[in-house]
Amino acid sequence: MDVVEEYFSSTLVCTHPLKSSSSGKNQNPSVKVNWSFNLQKFFRSVFLPEGFPESVSEDYLSYQKWDTLQAFCSTVNGILATQAVLKGVGVGDQNASAVNATIQWILRDGVGMIGRISFAWLRGSDLDNNAKTWRLVADGLNDIAMMIELISPAFPSLFLALLCTASVARAIVGVAGGATRAALTQHQARKDNLADVSAKDGSQETAVNLVGLVIGLVLTPALNGNQVLVWSLFVIFCILHIFFNYMAVKSVVMETINQERGKILISEFIAKGSVLSPPDVSVKENVLDCFPNRYSLKLGSRIADLGVSGKDLDELIRTHINQHYLLSLNGNKIKVVLHKEASPEDILKSFFHGQVIIHFLDRNTKTMKLDAISLSKKNDGAVREASQVMKLSREYVDENFSDFVLQLKSKGWVIDRVVLGVSEWRSLWG
User: Fold this and answer.
1) 210-254 pLDDT tens trace
2) Which string of b and e fits 415-428 if b means at least 16 CB within 10 Å?
3) Quick one: which of 161, 217, 316, 346 is 20 to 30 A from 199 by CA?
4) How confident is the model at residue 92 (pLDDT cuts 50, 70, 90)?
5) C-alpha to C-alpha distance for 231 and 237, rounded to whole angstroms
6) Quick check: helix, strand or coil at residue 184?
7) Cα separation of 92 and 300, whole Å?
8) 360, containing H or E segment
9) Neighbours of 366 (CB within 10 A)
10) Which residues sit opposite 355 in a β-bridge?
11) Residues 263, 275: Cα–Cα separation, whole Å
12) What is the C-alpha separation between 307 and 330, in angstroms, rounded?
């Protein structure tokens, strides 16, 4: 009799042939264990989340592929930079002081810690709103930090200053990279398996780092003293690192609505009356949008920031009856005051309203009857124009926002959690 046991979680298969005597009498069974190792299933269980691919987002494999390649490039460049730093602090120099090197290292780490705290304080709230952009920025800063470390030995008098500058850049990389990685992991985990997805991502990166270390062991003796070859390799791996990172973030298809994706969605809806799907928006999304917009839209302003009198505030409240937000237009600044009971959909509606006003002012479409608005540069003409824009925008929002939300839901967008960069200020009125 052959008994076959299969335990796929460990990817091992055991076969136990149990032999009996020809006389039919029971004898002690001779058990032979034959272990066959399935490498594909083994690596799948070690490096991929349990339940893959159903337990992760559809873009998981594409992102991890590019992320693995960029991690390898970063590891190799890190080895080159570390070699330069060690040379700068005096490794191999008989005249170098261990105490001096230790002080330099302590100062470097201390400045980096201050930089980490400062960056988290100043920009921490924006990391969720623009995870893809900050992920790319973090890896770009990492390359800059390694470049500074590479050039630091050439400037002995500035070595400590350069080392501290690189440390601050790396500190920002640590905060931005870690926070955005958490946001992307949250997006990828689809079966309440956030910890598993995060752990397997760590395993993948560790394996890539091990391969990079092996390459580093081969390269380090060969590159000793050859600065031309060191810089040539560094530039090549930097270019590849940036390219792989760009491809990684572009492959991510987020279903949450931030300002960049919201602008694309609303622009398409105004132009064609339809909502794009998350993959379509991902193709159009600009993860390198670093230029200031002509018009600013601030969600979560204080009432005092509106700069209106008591009478004008009463009129503003009257025109926003039954709304959980107040919207004010002053020149090229649009400010939104949110009610204390404003829901995510109310916040999305205020953003929709603000973007409609911007389209009105930009005159990107004739379907909104903008040609009737005076282009007068006089103050009274500007007031009439602003008043007319506000009136037309309210009518458009009242008529179309419900349809916009229905289409968002049908296309798979998440509207119960928006990442639109909203401040925490809330107000009460009515």
Assistant:
1) 999 999 888 888 887 788 999 999 999 999 999 999 999 999 999
2) beebbbbbeebebe
3) 217
4) low
5) 10
6) helix
7) 57
8) helix 344-362
9) 8
10) none
11) 11
12) 9
| Cβ–Cβ under 8 Å, residues 63 and 205 | no
Residue 200 CA, distance from chain mean position: 18
pLDDT tens, residue by residue, 100-139: 778 888 998 899 999 999 999 888 878 888 889 999 999 9
E strands, 281-347, are 296-299, 325-330, 333-338
Interacting residues of 400 by C-beta distance below 8 A, sequence separation 6+: 269
**CA nearest neighbour of 198 among 180, 185, 183:** 185
CA dihedral 264, 270, 272, 275 (to 10 degrees): 50
Secondary structure letter of residue 91 according to DSSP:
T
Per-residue model confidence as pLDDT tens digits over 60-91:
999 999 999 999 999 999 999 988 887 776 66
Please report, as a single letter, which amino acid is at residue 51: G
Interstrand relation of 296-299 and 256-258 (parallel, antiparallel or unpaired): unpaired
Backbone φ and ψ of 12, nearest 5°: -115, 140
Does the pLDDT at position 2 exceed 80? no
Between 377 and 336, residue with greater pLDDT: 336
Task: Walk across the sheet containing 2-7 and list its strands.
Answer: 2-7, 12-17, 36-37
Is 142 in a helix, a strand, or coil? helix
Please report where in the chains the tokens 């917009």 appear, as a residue.
293
Is the pLDDT reported for residue 367 higher than 60? no
Q: How far apart are CA 379 and CA 385, in angstroms?
A: 10
Measured between alpha carbons, how far is 365 from 231 in angstroms, rounded to an integer? Answer: 51
Burial class of 121 by CB neighbour count within 10 A (0 to 12, 13 to 18, 19+): exposed
Q: How many residues in the chain?
A: 430
Query: Tell me, what DSSP letter sits at residue 8?
Result: T
Q: Say if strands 256-258 and 414-419 run parallel, antiparallel, or are unpaired.
A: parallel
36: Cβ contacts below 8 Å, ≥ 6 apart: 12, 13
Residue bearing tokens 């007319």 = 388
The one-letter amino acid at 25: K
